[in-house]
Design brief:
Elements lengths: L4 E3 L3 H9 L4 H4 L3 E6 L11 E10 L3 E13 L5
Antiparallel strand pairs: 1-4, 2-3, 3-4
Length: 78
Amino acid sequence: MTTHGFSLERNGSMKDLANLELTLVSAVGLRFTFVMDDGDDDGTPDDIMFNGVVIHDPEWGYLALMDEDGTYHRSELS
């Protein structure tokens, strides 16, 4: 993976794309809000999220390339 890229070649990511009638190949160039399970110190769910685009990297494969503004938690949304 790259500094700001996270592999999408995982069952969960591919299933999410399939639910949108997309494949990794057809998702290249599309923008999404990506979500990863996380929780606060008390164990309350508080997903980590970031905005970005799907890319294909010759070395690392299909990645979610994070925007420069980085990650945030679901609890930070208003």
